[in-house]
Specification:
The structure is a homodimer of 298-residue chains. Chain A folds into two domains: 170 residues, NAD(P)-binding Rossmann-like Domain (Rossmann fold, 3-Layer(aba) Sandwich); 121 residues, 6-phosphogluconate dehydrogenase C-terminal fold, CATH 1.10.3660.10. Helices cover 51% and strands 12% of the residues of chain A. Chain A contains eleven helices and nine strands.
Chain lengths: 298, 298
Amino acid sequence: MKKVLIIGCGLLGSSLVRRISRYKIAKKIFIYEKSKSNISKIRRLKLPGIVVNSLEDGVVNSDLVILCTPISEYKKLIIKINKFISSKTIITDIGSSKIESSKIIKKFLKKGVQWIQSHPITGSEVSGPEHGKENMFKDKWCVLIKDKKTNSKNLKFLNSFWKKVGSKTIMMNVEKHDKIFSITSHLPHLIAYNLVKSAQDFEKIQKYDLIKYSAGGLRDFSRIAASNEIMWRDIFFDNKVNVSKAVDIFIKNLNSFKKDINSKNSKSIIKKLIQTKKVRSKILKLKQDINKPDFGRN
Amino acid sequence: MKKVLIIGCGLLGSSLVRRISRYKIAKKIFIYEKSKSNISKIRRLKLPGIVVNSLEDGVVNSDLVILCTPISEYKKLIIKINKFISSKTIITDIGSSKIESSKIIKKFLKKGVQWIQSHPITGSEVSGPEHGKENMFKDKWCVLIKDKKTNSKNLKFLNSFWKKVGSKTIMMNVEKHDKIFSITSHLPHLIAYNLVKSAQDFEKIQKYDLIKYSAGGLRDFSRIAASNEIMWRDIFFDNKVNVSKAVDIFIKNLNSFKKDINSKNSKSIIKKLIQTKKVRSKILKLKQDINKPDFGRN
């Protein structure tokens, strides 16, 4: 590939820049970044990409354009890009939710231009180009969104790109993608934010210093609840129907569990606790987490 | 101290044995363990304690007896211990909830015998003596339960014991303890179990393979949801009033968050997401977690 453009050079964008450069996946890497603070960081870090001030310089003649911005930026960017993009350039993005964003793409993107959505299952609670790493995508799943209209040649190109980046790829449609991630990712984040908020509410009422004792469980959730707020607002809004349904399933389980506790229903509680335990073994077997007690903290 | 007895030599019991021996905190360490499988492990691991078959051999002349069993074992053990314990022996336990267990102790323990409850804030999702470590308690908080009747000499002795074990100590009464930990520990565990259960419910209905994509958040919760089921049943039952209240606060927050998502109330969501983010910084500042993105997984 001759030229790639990364739009939005934060945690994941900068990780792509590092990886693409190191593995020579593209001859030239262009970066379009609107945050001045990120641009200074990119320069200070000497990231191996050419920072462009105009989107046109980045987009024209690119083989691939990758949006690594929050989902709420897509519409504005599409309208700008439409002016100079050709059908030779493939666009993708790395957003964690697809239902609403796919509709925006369908509605606003210039006809004849191919945008195949991607979702690499990776990230961290920290943001910014200084935290990016070239191995961010290594051995991680990357979902490619495929429907009946997806051009198979372009899909093959994008698939090969993610493999070069180090990911394992899988294809599915928007609906399946957003249902799965409403449970495995969006609900856990929503819960983490709300658990931490509940602790804060409790602290205010009781005037107890809770954080000191967070090692009993709260600290795990606090990590996820520290994730980027713009990114997560956008994901919750984009996938709101599935996320709402997931919250409902979860609240139903919470109420049933509470009932079991209050009636001291040992049989039912033990059955639930044993059943959920099995998931951890599966996750470790599938190498979806490090196999160290307590995340190897000590 | 001349003699200490550890009752229940699992993850925490065996960690105490290792630490007490290494730092010569007691001249003789006795272990009483009812699980045959754990006894073989203790022998195979050559843990530096004397395994006794009778509680009497362990208890008589001990300076300190530490119960490291699930809370539901306390009553049975108290009734047995009563037969040969003297007022010279101090008893403690390491249970994570105190309300119900303190009542059982008050009701059944022989008059004149001192039991001061402890709660070291440490542990892991794995169980058994093979996972114990001498540094399990190092730099961790240990709560000592103190009320008007607590003998100050005995409290001082116990306080000094936990400090030798490596912990930072703090004193509070049962009510405050159980309120705090209902939020920082019991609620997070309850949530983790129920999130994983919700994922399992969803998997059954949708026939999707979710676990493969657990790296988006679910895997963090699966670790906590893999904790010992007997121990956690007992904690939930022991602290059911506070835990139920905590679940109610949490469900209220979930519903309000869901409403914000469905009405796309950006201002309210962003405010919540920014507010909860601060807790992580506090936790890191207080050294209650390792300061590495993604728990240093990569």
